[in-house]
From TrEMBL, chains A, B:
PANTHER family tied to this protein: POTASSIUM TRANSPORTER KIMA
Descriptive protein name: Amino acid transporter
Extent of Basic residues compositional bias: 668-677
GO molecular function: transmembrane transporter activity
Entry keyword set: Membrane, Transmembrane, Transmembrane helix
UniProt subcellular location: Membrane
Length: 677, 677
């Protein structure tokens, strides 16, 4: 088993995850060209399309509350959702050209409405990535259970297990390979089209499909006009969950084949078209087959042992109604649905680090998130995402309906901020470059800003009491946190900025070699210290254990080291403090010389080795870094030099969407350097 | 809020615990003299005495299974346990003198039966510390619930919360202050004595107390002779849980006041006497009051709503029987019992790191565990212990009876190995120093070795199927792990041992300053590099971002840095690899010179700062440590120099039992150093 340099990255900071992960997957060696449309569509659309699996379901669920009378309004509500999709697509369509760098709504808001507005979008999106994972996985489990009701008792465990699976896969570094995405997505589209098609044809032939749930009556309390309006709004708000994921493309432009913008836009149109038709089709079938879907199956009069028996998902019900109980096609539909939902969840694992790096580049997230090629960082992102999603799933018992309540808000925050930003963008264009300005784009942006804004309002109002409040608590906290980080960086930058006032001019050059035992690493450190020809040089040993000290002194003589050995007392079995005292004393006597402290450092390659090494010397160094005029010289001694070392060949989550060139698997070649003065 | 150097220890490796912990407690400044007997007794005895709280209970529980006929045998079983206590005390009594260093059974086995045997004891004890926490906390919760039945539904949560509480307390650094221990322990002893006394007096006066549970019949299947024998053995085995904790004293000799051994032995005798009398008294009362205690209250015929209503602990039942329902004394007894059980759990938090450091000193545990004054290490031990115990409590639903099944084994493994070791010790003495050899000690050791061995066998046989098997799985794994660590250290020691063959003699001296931006820290690094007067010196910048490079070059000229700046290309936005390439190239051209790489290092004092810094440069350093002939020179730049720095004043878990001198709260004073050649 060859261990590469990324193992080192871990030895710096232990993470049990390394356990789970081990060797890079072969998939890490997949070809890494930019994505052609036919591949980009599935990669970016799985999120948006999969939401068609729960969008209509949530809509029906809310309508069913009002009883059959209200259910009749389904088509109109659906129409509203469809128009909204069209509008949002149109909005992103322009956004993609105006800001092709992949910053998406965040960038637009940031550039046009100021960093704080951008940050709102950033926070909203971060939260939404978490929810994408939670909702998609929960919905996926729903469909699995619809096919295999036996699994019902393990709903939550199943969901958590799937999240863990996705996390591990991404930690190991699965490139979002087109192939892996294309097949399931296209199968999903095809099977749903087939489903809808067959259903409509049967209806045309006068044999409309009938959902099993149509047999169950729903008792509903008489409802006022106002109540009806509110209910329809809620249904609409829930249906809007079908819009989640459309933003993915505007965040992934860099990953497209040239001409990037053009391809991205075409893909966007395709995506819009497909999701509209799927949404319309499923709703139509639902209405035709008189499907009833209740939040709690026990509200369905006549539904046997509702307490234990789970309610099949809408897709599953329709498939059964159209193809007949237990037909293989039913399993195809549910399986492909579940699979696409998983892929959708996976996209979040790729989007999260990507957004993170954009935020970091603007100084709103730990700068390390911006480091390309830093696996550990991305891994932490993946783990963070997984934990948050798992927590959500646990708390809300993997209940899609409960999760959806939190979901849509984030998306529409980013949509509306993005479109408001676009509006500002056009207006500025109008002022600055009159020639390029056109009226239509502005109009589109304004409308879609208004619509998305209105929907955001509706969603908030109708869902706030159903759990959406949580988002309005977490969002601001996140926002505030990111601002704080930004402030911190600003302060540090100011602190370390080069200025004329601070004068450097260290003089004198004393060197100390910290000696614990006289081992090879220590001898090497001594040797290097000598080679560096410092003005003065001494070995220093803290007298923690008199016996050990004696032994050392004897050895020191025996080896004939040409450097004086100084023993400093350590009454408290502590090394750092006595050495610090010694250094201070030296600087007190010899004036403020630069003191270079040499310490040997054992370097192991295996992730667990650091658990057995260097704790102490690291602490000592930590302490020494606080002394004035001290430089720490680490002389590495590499253990088991047989293990190979090289750059980490594994792809990073989000690389594909970022359109990153792949790091080479083999070592880099010698490249000439140019010198400047 | 002043942050001291220990915060740094944390910035090295982030641990969320720091969050929970914050500032050291005032208790950290308690006086730190060695312990006089009257204080040592409670400190070391709480574990042993508290086990009297569940020992008899477990015995009664098992006997009750056999029905009233079998219950009659209680006195004889108790007698067996009492004799065993006496024997074990006698055994430890000699052990304390023979091995006063505090290694206890582990040391005896290690020295006399070889490291592997010692390791068995070590593993057994480690597991037992975990069980001490789990059992004591669970039993404590039992007594709390007996007093306040309303808390019954939260049994598990309560237990976990208590464990967390103990962990946090120990992380913050509570010294095992005599005072804190003395009061509850003595109150416990007093209250139980009062309980027993009153009970016996009332019996003498012809008004014996009657336990409420005596009213409930127990149905028991007719039982064979063999069955009876086995049942009695099981009862005995369960009763033996009263012996846990006696080993504490032999592990804590160094903490006693001089004459250490004598005081330790006297304390040991006191301890033995007290626990025997308490055990005897409680059993007697149990028999007199015809107490019935079933594993599942529903086995008690006539026990109303047994499903929901918890069964009061034996102590609680006796207290009620003696003092009457709801008498204040009842609450005193149960409260002091609960408190002592908590203290017992706390002792494990002190013993665990102590044993860890002994194991580490022998190279069987990560060496860092041996570092005195290394808070982080101890903290990790505490957290590990807490997590393990919490897991156990969760899995076994804080069910004392279930936990007890795992418990006794470890104790008796260490007892028997310890006593076998002692036997060997005496026999060797007989061979080597005939004059000092006496027959009696040998006899004692042999008997107690045989008895404890026999009990170990009984315990294993009677409990294996009841869950004890888990111990026989975990133990060996732990054992094997520790052996592996030992082997690893041995290999490394061999690898780095100084020998005549390896020749050092590095020559040449080239220095590189890694430059990212031209900030104060970088300028300081340049300045130090210049001060060190290396043979050759250059600044190196990896061209990750052309713009930034341009800017740097302009600034470089502007600042008029007297060092050539070399730009190395970085096609993969990576810094480490290009620099490595550059160094190799240099060494290829100029021969194998020592290359010193200067990097500025930002040093923050707050635990969260490292999250925002240095990730990348740390990675780069990590990579550079793998290159031949490279020395890393860190030039620290301290942020916000206003925060104070000093040694960590807080006491470490286990210090009290280790008899450690306290680290000073104020800075150490200047101490003269002696020079040697």
């Amino acid at each position: 088993m060859t261990q590469r340099v990324y193992v080192l990255a871990v030895t710096e900071e232990f993470s049990p995850k390394r356990w789970l992960i081990g060797e890079p997957l072969e998939s890490g060696r997949l070809d890494e060209q930019l994505l052609p449309k036919r591949i980009a569509l599935p990669v970016f659309a799985s999120d948006a399309l999969s939401s068609v699996a729960y969008g209509p379901q949530e809509m029906f669920l809310v309508l069913t509350i009002g009883g059959l009378a209200v259910l009749a309004h389904a088509p109109w509500v659906a129409l509203g959702v469809i128009c909204l999709i069209a509008i949002v697509v149109a909005g992103s369509f322009q956004l993609v050209r105006a800001y092709p760098s992949g910053g998406g709504d965040y960038e637009v808001a940031h550039r046009n409405l100021g960093p704080r507005a951008g940050l709102v979008v950033g926070a909203a999106l971060l939260i939404d990535y978490v929810l994408t994972v939670a909702v998609s996985v929960a919905a996926g489990v729903d469909n699995v259970i619809s096919a295999l009701p036996a699994l019902a008792p393990w709903r939550v465990e199943l969901a958590v297990a799937l999240i863990a699976l996705l996390a591990i896969a991404n930690l190991r570094g699965v490139r979002e390979s087109g192939a892996a995405f294309a097949l399931p997505t296209y199968v999903f589209i095809a099977s749903v089209v087939l489903l809808v098609g067959t259903g409509l044809v049967r209806t045309a032939l006068g044999d409309p499909p009938v959902a099993a749930s149509s047999a169950y009556a729903v008792e509903a309390d008489p409802i006022t006009q106002a109540g009806l309006a509110l209910l329809l709004l809620r249904a609409f708000a829930s249906g809007c969950s079908a819009l989640t994921g459309i933003e993915a493309i505007s965040n992934g432009v860099p990953a497209f084949r040239r001409p990037k913008v053009r391809n991205a836009r075409i893909t966007l149109l395709l995506l819009g078209g497909v999701s509209i038709s799927l949404f319309a089709g499923i709703t139509a079938l639902g209405v035709i087959s008189r499907l009833h879907y209740a939040q709690d199956p026990c509200d369905l009069i006549g539904y046997a042992d509702c307490a234990t028996r789970p309610q099949p998902s809408v897709i599953a019900q329709l498939a059964t109604a159209v193809f007949g109980e237990g037909a293989p096609l039913v399993y195809l539909v549910t399986a492909s649905t579940a699979l696409v939902l998983l892929l959708a969840a996976n996209t979040a694992f790729n989007g999260f680090p990507l957004l993170g790096s954009v935020l970091a580049a603007n100084g709103f997230a730990p700068r390390s998130l911006a480091n390309r090629g830093d696996r550990l960082v991305h891994s932490n992102g993946v783990i963070l995402l997984a934990l948050a999603a798992a927590l959500l799933v646990l708390v809300l018992r993997a209940d899609v309906n409960a999760l959806i309540q939190l979901y849509v808000i984030g998306v529409f925050v980013s949509f509306s901020f993005g479109q408001i930003g676009m509006t500002v963008h056009w207006l500025r264009l109008r002022r600055t470059r009159r020639r390029e300005f056109r009226m239509l784009p502005l109009a589109i942006s304004v409308t879609s800003a208004l619509c998305t804004g209105a929907v955001l309002l509706i969603v908030t109002v109708t869902k706030f009491t159903h759990g959406a409040w949580a988002v309005f608590v977490l969002g601001p906290i996140l926002w505030w946190l990111m601002l704080g980080i930004h402030r911190y960086y600003a302060r540090v930058r100011a602190e370390i900025a080069a200025d004329r006032t601070t004068v450097f001019g260290a003089k004198g050059d004393h060197a100390i070699v910290l000696v614990e035992e006289l081992t090879k690493p220590t001898l090497k450190a001594l040797d290097y210290a000598i080679a560096a020809r410092h003005a003065t040089l001494e070995g220093v040993h803290a007298d923690v254990d008199p016996e050990a000290t004696m032994r050392l002194e004897r050895q020191w003589k025996a080896e004939g080291v040409r450097v004086p050995l100084r023993i400093v007392p350590s009454p408290y079995r502590d090394v750092a403090e006595p050495v610090v005292e010694h250094i201070r004393r030296h600087r007190a006597e010899h004036g403020p010389e630069v003191v270079t402290v040499y310490t040997p450092k054992l370097v192991g390659l295996r992730w667990w080795e650091h658990l057995l090494h260097n704790r102490r010397s690291t602490r000592i160094r930590q302490r020494l870094t606080l002394e004035h005029g001290v430089t720490l010289a680490l002389v590495p001694w590499r253990l088991h030099p047989d293990l190979p070392v090289g750059p980490d060949p594994r792809p990073l989550p989000g690389d594909a969407r970022r359109g990153q060139p792949a790091r080479p698997v083999v070592r880099q070649q010698h490249r000439p350097a140019r010198e400047r003065r």
